[in-house]
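FORM 7B: Structural annotation worksheet

SECTION A. Query
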Amino acid sequence: MFDRYEAGERAVLVHINFTQEGEWEDLSEFEMLVSSAGVSSLQVVTGSRQSPHPKYYVGEGKAQEIAQIVRLSGADIVIFNHALSPAQERNLESLCKCRVLDRTGLILDIFAQRARTHEGKLQVELAQLRHISTRLIRGWTHLERQKGGIGLRGPGETQLETDRRLLRDRIKAILRRLEKVAKQREQGRRARSRAQIPTISLVGYTNAGKSTMFNRITQAGVYAADQLFATLDPTLRKIDLADVGPAILADTVGFIRHLPHDLVAAFKATLQETQEADILLHVVDASDERFRENIGAVHEVLEEIDAHEVPALLVMNKIDNLESQSPRIERDEDGVPRAVWVSAMEGVGIELLFDALTERLASQMVQYHLRIPPQHQGRIRSTFFQMKCIQQEDYDQDGNLLIDVRMQQVDWSRLEKREGAVFRDFIVT
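SECTION B. Predicted structure
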């Protein structure tokens, strides 16, 4: 049993091209991930296979080749651009005599470096513990031994069982603390809902320019960099939209192809902002040759977190890197804005984005002139006041309340459902 070496900064990268579509990964994106983790690449080993090898993921010959490169280059770590099973990871470590990390472990490491807030750190730790817990079973078989000898025999707990128990206890503790965070976020959302403040959530592939866009719109000064997963901790800011009023803009973590499930589960409280949003601003790096695949990857994650039904507006960003594109609004067959071409870095097309956003949000608003008889006035007027949707009110000579209200379509539908059919009789056409 060799010692497990700590992850170093010199790495041999392994990227395998598979004929199966589901196993496919991008090499240039992998190199960006490695660079974002602060690791220098000594050599990239590539190969082709029809399907993963059960023992080494790569073939036995390729595994021997990787081990030879590690010895000759003095690498500290081998990083795979694929998800390895615990057994495959362990077998490769035995062969290469150094630490082996898969794509999931690499992303987790980047997240650990980027987390700034208490909540973000808890979420990353939870994801890491869930990932490590699967590695304890086969990766630490030397810990199965119990102590022997006079006075030490007995059905005691093995070291592996102790580690598993400690991991379970820590995971439960983190989940309890994250539950509190989730409740606090829910209270904030309820308060915004009561105040009729729409929420706009920025989503998109990692490094699409979401934080730059966020800073351009809100002047927030959020950290933005040309690297993967520059933003981890969600930031909320208030903005004002013409004809809509105040709105909340939320900057969220970037998505990536084959985002680890442990991360999606751990960041549930954060991603709730996306689920509960009134509209999503889906920021796309229009200068990326594979932006269509990136859009597809984001849709997959949105489906995974049950946010795929939230209305979305595409923001085609980074047109400053394209020669033939100018800022414009694209509309669907009904004339509704579906995409806006902008450059957040240069500040080009931001006014068009505001116009499209206002148009989309305003289309979800309804405005009614109501005549409410005296017997219904107290309760209904109180409801409208709580919702802060009254624009004007007066009384006619018969004592009827004449009131103009403006609110989200979804809230009007809820009121109609609660008050019954009589509610529609109050509308003055």
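SECTION C. Observations
The chain has a mean pLDDT of 78. The radius of gyration is 27 Å.

SECTION D. Sign-off
Analyst initials: ____
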